[in-house]
Amino acid sequence: MDQALPTGGVLWRVLGAWADPRGSMRTELDRAPSEGRLLFYIMFAGLFRFVGAAMALAYGPMALMIPDDQFRGRIAAAFVAIFFFLTILSYAVAATGGALARLMGGTGSWYDSRAALFWAALVAAPAVLGAKLLSLVLVGLPALIVGSVEMLGGVAFAWTTAYCFAEAHGFASVWKVFAVIAGLAIAVVGTIYRLGQIV
User: Fold this and answer.
1) Among 27, 54, 82, 147, which is least packed by CB within 10 angstroms?
2) What is the CA radius of gyration of the chain?
3) Does the predicted model carry a pTM greater than 0.70?
4) Backbone angles phi, psi at 141, to 5 degrees
């Protein structure tokens, strides 16, 4: 069975996943990637986010107002936040998402949930970076437009996650999974906004 699996490199498989996200998830599960490989996936995805954060610091609207010493500090903070805290958070999100999927009738394991989330993050990473860079190019336009463009990266991540979780947990409808993810995201953003108003 291994001989029938695609033999391209990870970047080639990431690009190909956009043509068939469910099929790419099934291929990854058939590969049975090790925990080290899954960690590589989420950290590689983090690399794209780090590049976007660094570009925002260097060329964003606040770039000229950040002294060199603060710039280096912010770059270091972004590095720690993305490669350490975001990685840990990804494991927690995978566990929570897996538990929720099981409650909704999903058949995947916690391993399947990690594989789904981490592969989805990697597949979406180029789109997340592209949206970030495009939002920097559009700086100067109304904030709603710039923010909407940057938000496209989050939509891409939710879209790939929906496909990957649907395949990993045996859900027939990707759109129902996407609706749940979107609903949870809106609830989280709304809660943070309300807390910000209280504080």
Assistant:
1) 147
2) 18
3) yes
4) -80, 170
For residue 96 the two structure tokens come to: 């929570």
Q: Tell me the helices (H) and strands (E) count for the chain, helix number first.
A: 8, 0
In this structure, what token pair is assigned to residue 179? Answer: 């609706």
Sign of CA dihedral 6, 44, 125, 111: positive
Q: How many Å apart are CA 118 and CA 62, to the nearest integer?
A: 31
pLDDT digits (tens, 9 = 90+) for 47-93: 999 999 999 998 887 777 788 778 888 999 999 999 999 999 999 99
Average pLDDT of the segment spanning 162-173? 95
State the average pLDDT for the chain.
88
Q: Return the closest-CA partner of residue 158 out of 121, 191, 108.
A: 121
Give the C-alpha distances (Å, rounded to integers) separating 8 from 13, 64, 136, 145: 6, 42, 32, 37
